[in-house]
Design goal:
six-stranded mixed β-sheet; Immunoglobulin-like; 315 residues; alpha+beta; rod-shaped; four-stranded antiparallel β-sheet; 31% strand; 22% helix
Length: 315
């Protein structure tokens, strides 16, 4: 009898060992699955065509703006980003950030722009690839990638003379590294404001009557500029500018006039003036009177009615 009870106890213990672990596995939480998303970002502001854009920080964020997953695009990956997180996390959307750039285009079948810079996305209808990853966009050669373009900024400031006067009418130009030129004319108090894409530029300022500024490197990241131009050095002779040169010429002319007058007076006192004043009016009157009395032949003209003999009358 005892042996049967002992045998039953042994059997129950063996069943407990077998059954309890199975029941414990059933109560354990399920391990979360990993979600892997990828896509591509391109530069749509490039004049030569769409090109992969490196350095873009792509984040999956939650409702509080916290980062769930993060990736940075690189040229080697053709602007590709890869994001992985577990499905027990609750993302709100994605953000795409690169200084000086703004998202311009996106695949509307997957993404929807919210009121902020966050893009909600839905991959529920996307079939994963052989690696279990979900492709959100085409590559840059396709037409359904995340397109980012240069953000418009501006460069502004004032142009002054070296005496502190604002130079209205000064011509201001900035040139980008790829040769794009933006120009404007300074207005009141020499103020100017040029709208341009974010980036670094070469600035030049010219103004009539002033020396050129020369080339200056400026950036939309630090857009406020003050330019001071020096007045041109109008040197003509012996280091003299135009006003002083005219003064010297005037003095020289005055001295020459005084010398001529002095020499003329000195010679007139000796009776040998080297300046002769000719008055031929009297001589002209005499010649006119002579022609009137004698004619051009030089013979004296008869006067009165008896000057001519009467012709005899015919018989």
């Amino acid at each position: 009898m005892i042996s049967r009870v002992a045998l039953a106890a042994v059997l129950l213990a063996a069943m407990a060992v077998i059954v309890l672990p199975q029941g414990a596995d059933a109560d354990d939480p399920v391990e979360p699955a990993t979600v892997t998303l990828y896509g591509y970002v391109g530069d749509v502001s490039n004049e030569t065509g769409n090109v992969p854009l490196d350095g873009v920080v792509v984040r999956v964020v939650d409702a509080r703006g916290g980062t769930i997953a993060e990736s940075v695009t690189g040229m080697d990956e053709a602007g590709e980003f890869v994001l992985a997180y577990t499905d027990d996390q609750v993302p709100v959307g994605m953000t795409f950030t690169k200084e000086g750039y703004t998202v311009r285009t996106w695949p509307e079948s997957v993404f929807m722009k919210l009121d902020t810079d966050v893009f909600a996305y839905d991959y529920s209808e996307i079939i994963p690839d052989e690696d279990g990853r979900y492709r959100l966009t085409s590559d840059v050669s396709g037409g359904s990638f995340i397109g980012m373009g240069l953000t418009e900024g501006h460069i502004f400031g004032n142009v002054y003379s070296d005496s502190g006067k604002g130079l209205s009418g000064a011509k201001v130009s900035i040139t980008s590294s790829d040769g794009q030129i933006f120009t404007t004319t300074a207005g009141s108090n020499g103020y100017f404001d040029i709208q341009a894409y974010y980036g670094t530029y070469t600035l030049e300022v010219t103004c009539k009557g002033f020396q050129d500024s020369g080339k200056m490197e400026v950036s939309t990241f630090d857009p406020s500029i003050v330019v001071i131009l020096k007045e041109k050095d109008h040197t003509l002779f012996f280091g003299l500018d135009v006003p002083h040169t005219l003064e010297v010429i005037g003095v020289i002319i005055a001295i020459l006039v005084l010398l001529v007058v002095a020499i003329s007076r000195a010679r007139s006192r000796k009776g040998k003036s080297w300046i002769t004043i000719v008055n031929d009016l009297d001589q002209q009157d005499e010649e006119d009177e002579y022609r009137g009395r004698f004619g051009s032949s030089g013979r004296r003209r008869p006067s009165g009615r008896g000057c001519c003999p009467r012709r005899p009358s015919p018989l």
